[in-house]
Specification:
The chain is mainly alpha-helical. The protein has 8 helices and 2 strands; from the N terminus they run H-H-E-E-H-H-H-H-H-H. Helix 3 (about 65-80) runs antiparallel to helix 4 and helix 6 (about 125-150) runs antiparallel to helix 7.
Length: about 230
């Protein structure tokens, strides 16, 4: 979807397919004959955990994980002019958000953190501070869950309430943070690669024909941080 929506990446789609098919045939398909592999992958109890988080809307249930997954797909499809930096950030935040909505699938969370750090290590302070707060909430939630499953400790109603409140705050803050950060990342990324290949536009004409007007309009179009007007 990323390559289709970005014209300069479309040429690598066929190359990727040609490379992926033999790799899948040679490395993945043979292990399907292994009983251990089929049990570990297709019979894993973790698969069912993506449907544990749901809202009862009798007579049906609203599943949070598929809803978030669909919204993420729609975002990357509608964002259009993306670059590799946005793609890496999107993958990281998507894994982070999906790991929260799937409760105990911590592997996605760890992969998401690594991708997010690649993109946001030099971003503004408030983005990093918000991210640290989210990580502290995640850590608190996992500690409470581990504390609660200890058979030697009786889980009280107050600890259940605290755990549920932490999870509620975590999910809401994570959704808000991901949506706002994706928008910020899209706005601040050098989509036209002007930093690598700057463009010089000369505007000439008689007095009063609108040279300044056109220059200011171009600056607004490309962004004031990406343009310099030399009179």
């Amino acid at each position: 979807m990323f390559a289709i929506s970005n014209e300069r990446f479309r040429r690598i789609i066929l190359k990727t397919v040609y490379t992926s098919v033999p790799v899948i045939v040679l490395s993945y398909i043979p292990v399907l004959w292994s009983n251990g592999f089929r049990t570990m992958v297709f019979g894993s109890e973790k698969i069912n955990q993506i449907y544990l988080l749901s809202i009862n809307m009798s007579p049906v249930n609203f599943y949070v994980f598929p809803a978030i997954y669909l919204l993420l797909i729609l975002w990357i499809w509608r964002s259009r002019h993306s670059n590799v930096k946005i793609l890496i950030g999107f993958v990281g935040m998507a894994l982070f958000l999906l790991s929260i909505s799937s409760l105990d699938i911590v592997g996605w969370h760890l992969w998401g953190i690594s991708s997010i750090l690649i993109v946001f290590v030099n971003q503004e302070v408030h983005i990093r501070v918000f991210f640290v707060v989210l990580q502290l909430l995640v850590l608190s939630r996992y500690l409470l869950r581990q504390h609660g499953i200890n058979p030697d400790i009786i889980k009280s109603d107050s600890s259940i309430l605290i755990s549920d409140m932490i999870f509620t705050c975590l999910l809401i803050l994570a959704i808000v943070w991901v949506s706002s950060t994706l928008k910020y990342l899209h706005q601040t990324s050098d989509l036209l690669r002007l930093n690598k290949k700057p463009i010089l536009v000369s505007i000439c004409g008689d007095s009063g024909v609108g040279k300044d007007t056109i220059a200011i309009s171009l600056a607004k179009t490309f962004g004031k941080t990406s343009t310099s007007i030399i009179c």
